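To the structural biology subgroup,

Please find below the input and predicted structure for Major facilitator superfamily (MFS) profile domain-containing protein, which we are adding to the shared reference set this quarter. The sequence is reproduced verbatim from the submission form. If anyone notices a discrepancy with their own records, reply to this email rather than editing the shared folder directly, so we keep one authoritative version.
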Amino acid sequence: MPATGVSLPTLEALLRGLGEIWHAFWLPFVARYSLVYACTKGVNYAMFFWLPFYLSEVCELDPGLADGLSVFYDIGQCLGGVIASSVVDRMAKGKKSIV
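Predicted structure (tokenized):
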């Protein structure tokens, strides 16, 4: 039950909002970047959940050690992002570029 004085959006307003989102999806490169982002997130979540299990079950490591080692994957992503952006900045010499 909504609180007193709070109005919920109408169905028409919700549908209009969905139409605007759908319109934004068809802007140049948005669909492509959305697909790339979804695949990247899929790989991230697969590694996040699968790597500790693999290290503990298949490699027979202690589960605590397997969890600790899987953190290096996250650290590698952070450092890799910083290094990749630095390399792109130097290659592009300050110009805007899409990676």
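Summary notes: The chain has a mean pLDDT of 82. Residues 11-92 form one domain.

Regards,
Lab coordination
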